[in-house]
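dumping this here so i dont lose it again. seq + smiles for S-adenosylmethionine
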Amino acid sequence: MDLAVLERLVSGEGWGLLESLPPYDESSAMSLGERLREAGFDADLVAGALTQSRLRARGRDKFGDFAAGMLFTADGLEQATRLDVAARHAERFRRAGVRHVWDLGCGIGSDAMAFAGLDLRVSAVDSDPATALVAGVNLRHWPSASTLVGSVEQTRLPAGEGARHAGAWLDPARRLPGVADGMGRTRRVFRLDAISPSWATVQQVAASLPAVGAKLSPAFPHASVPAGCEAQWTSYRGEVVECVVWWGALVRRSGRSAQVIGSDGRAATVTEADVTAEIPPLPGLDALGHVLYEPDRAVIRAGLTGAVSAEVDGAELDPGVGYVTSERTRELPFARRFVVEDAMPWGVKRLRAHLRDRGVGRVTIKKRGVTVDADQLRRQLHLSGDREATLVITRVAGRQVVLVVRPS
Ligand SMILES: C[S@@+](CC[C@H](N)C(=O)[O-])C[C@H]1O[C@@H](n2cnc3c(N)ncnc32)[C@H](O)[C@@H]1O
């Protein structure tokens, strides 16, 4: 959003206009805009206020009720950490004894709000003046938080004794544009050499302060985890949202870990120490157990499927596919459990006959390690019947198979 419009929006008249708007409703936004212009408000200000109103409605997903009092930029909202995840970042800083956090590349200030909310002093820096202005508005309730327009590279961080209780948080922007994923959605591409501030800058900051965290893409390569750091992949309600690299006092256990935040808000953590044995591969379909575990995606991204197999004394269906089979039934907060009803080598004809005989009219299709077009498969199956089934199409011992499973 244009800086000049934002500056007017945070002025008396603009803020008054924004606060007077009813809850956003797409169907009446145009007529509302017309009425406001007829009432004498400037067209740019009305457009800016309606944009903010729309972004606030969209921001509810990440910020809940807080969104109604916040300002956004469209990019800033998209890149912002959701508040429940930001609160966990902040808690880690607080527990490590950090009192002053430098949020370097603060965006609209989501993480900064979480730090300030835990009574940490916050210096939030962003190179984009409009974004920094928005962050300043979002941090207005906390006098211990200040916002600066500037680059990370030029920011003078505390040193010596002054750095003793200081920490830094970085959430670099991804400079590559998104690519379409074939479903019309855009997926932001991650390359470590295409983030801003750069990975080299992040590491320089990490070397200069006793407690530093950097939020990176879930595609962060395992080989790039710096020695002595903790790299933690986090999923929120099943979606992997970040990989944070923690340095210094913020490291709980060095190496890779996964944090799984469920829909009840509770989190389970898995670390490399939970992988107590090498994960055995399944020799063939005959050896399949009656239970199938689907590790959370954060666990898979962190390369910790072995923690699931260790818990249930299981085997992985095929190296790297991430499904674990076992005869043991255990409740794991970081894996979904299914009962295996049937298993067969892959073949559409055989599967169609199998489902027809059982009156299955609807299927949920899960696939890993194979290329199958789920929509095309559904058409080929000519399903009819009242029953539902879940199909897992994957590999066992290098061969494509289909398992018919039921959540348990
Ligand atoms: C992913 S966003 C941060 C989001 C933020 N953590 C939040 O949850 O709201 C990254 C921000 O870094 C800023 N940025 C990128 N390169 C920068 C640099 N070299 N110096 C300062 N800010 C920078 C961008 O303007 C952008 O607002």
